[in-house]
Amino acid sequence: MALLRGVNVGGITVRSAELKSVFEALGFTGVRTVLASGNVVFTAEGRPAAIKRTIEAALEERFGYDAWIVLVDRERLVQVIDGFPFDATREGWHPYVLFASDEAALDDIQSSAGELDAADDVIARGGDVLYWHNRRDVGISSPFAKIVAKARFRTVTTNRNLRTLQKLL
C-alpha cells in the first residue's frame, strides 16, 4: 500500500482514476485507490526502497509535485491497526497514526511535544509509527497538531485516521 503525502491539499490535485493509471502503467497489479486522500492498494514485486523511488518519480513526472510516499505492506498495516493503544471509539476524539520515512522524524516530533494536555492530545510510539488521539473540538488547533504541521516534518511524515487504515485492509 502506498500512502501519499500532501495530495488534494495546497493546490496539488490528484484524481483517483489518474492515480490508479500511474500505478498500472508502472506494471503493478490489483491497483485500487481508497478514498480521495492518496491511498493506493496494489501488488508489486521487488525491493521496497526501489518501488518507493519508482512511484515517487512517476508521481513527480505525472502530477508535477515533489512526491513523497510511505509504503506499508498488509501485514504491517494489520499490526499498526491492532496496536492502536487508545480507545478508538471514544466519542469526540480522532484516532490517527503518523507514518514517517525516517524514524528520527518521529523521535523529533515526540520530543518536541513535551508534556501534552491529555484533555486534548495523547500520543504513544508504536515502533515505526506514532499513535495520536486528538480531541475533535481542538483538532488542528491543538499544540501537537501544530508540531506535526511544521515545515520540517511535512516532507517526511503523513498521517491517517485509523478508520481510513481499516478501509485500506
Question: Could you explain the architecture of this structure?
Answer:
This is DUF1697 domain-containing protein. The chain has 7 helices and 8 strands. The protein has 2 domains: 2-71, SP0830-like domains (Alpha-Beta Plaits); 81-168, bacterial protein sp0830 like (Alpha-Beta Plaits). It is 37% helix and 24% strand. It starts with a strand and ends with a helix. The protein has helices spanning 16-25, 48-63, 74-82, 103-113, 143-148, 151-154, 162-168; strands spanning 2-4, 29-33, 39-43, 69-71, 93-100, 121-125, 129-135, 157-161. It is globular and about 45 Å long. By secondary structure, the protein is of the alpha+beta class. The model has no long low-confidence stretch (mean pLDDT 91). The strands form 2 sheets. It has a 4-stranded antiparallel sheet, with helices on one face.
Give the key terms.
about 170 residues, alpha+beta, Alpha-Beta Plaits, 2 domains, four-stranded antiparallel sheet, globular
